[in-house]
Hints:
By secondary structure, the chain is of the alpha/beta class.
Amino acid sequence: MRIALVGERSPSVRSHARMPLLVRALRERDGVAMDAYWISTADVSGVDEFDGIWLVPGSPYRDEAGALEAVRVARERGIPDHLRQRLHAVGRRRRAGQL
Length: 99
């Protein structure tokens, strides 16, 4: 499984520094065969070739339009994406009066 980590990688963003640990844990502990690739928002061409897309935290993004393009590609092509799933979860919680 190939995952696109869309965003501007920065060692000062805690979640970015932890990403390799997460990928390793998924491989070793859960047996998930996954390779993660950082994709800058400035060039999201080819993002449709991934099995999943994760718009990582740490804005501002270099190219906001590129970030939105990655989400659009995921939505239109049925590629699982982390941001869309989180937005749906927030919407469900809001409708349930939990937010």
